[in-house]
What we know:
The protein is α/β, with parallel strands linked by helices and 229 residues long. The protein has helices spanning 35-38, 54-73, 90-103, 126-130, 135-143, 155-170, 182-193, 197-200, and strands spanning 23-30, 83-86, 108-109, 174-180, 210-216, 221-228. The two termini are 28 Å apart.
Amino acid sequence: MIPGAPRLDRDEVPATRPHRGRRTRVLLVRHGVTPFTEQSRLDGRGGADPSLSPTGRAQALRAAEIVTQLLRTGEGRGTAPARLVTSDLARARQTGAVLAEHVGVAPEVDRRFDEQSFGDWDGVSIGEILDGPDAAALATMRVDSGYARPGGETHAEMTARVLEAYTEAVAPGGTVVVVCHRKPIMAMLGHVLGLPLEAQWRLAADPGSVNGIDAWSDGTSVVAFTNRT
């Protein structure tokens, strides 16, 4: 840093860069925990779809406070009113309802932001998988975007639907808040950063955390901040 120069916080991303076109600020919120999360059980699209636990509800409230503060200070605001989109799973819709009450907007539901379907592993704990005959497949799932459990979907299939929804969500400009899940958030951040699946696991996205992306209409995008809790 040049001595005497003003300090620019890493989260202070300029709202307008005329040569890039219109900016959209995307706030990615991971839902609060459920009893399945607390028991380290996989819970994807098509699974049991549990509701938030008391801890999860507290995390949703904290996320709402963070998003409200971002909008109030202008850090999360674009040039149009904020929009709120959630996945179709209960934990995301319930987290989104808390945010909607604080932000003052009606949530929309988009199933394309749902968590990956884990097929026959939905509802199974990580410990049970590691103690069972398919333990090696867990490592495969973390690095092979084409791997799917019986009855489930691949990471690549999930990523395709998530990025389709993401592209549509950022098109209008302004600010969009997307409440969804660990792997969809990994996919969106990984897309911006150009990360393969095995590297996406290094991106922290705790339950109830807020992550920020700035996307311009010329196709440029940057990760503004991650894992704010």
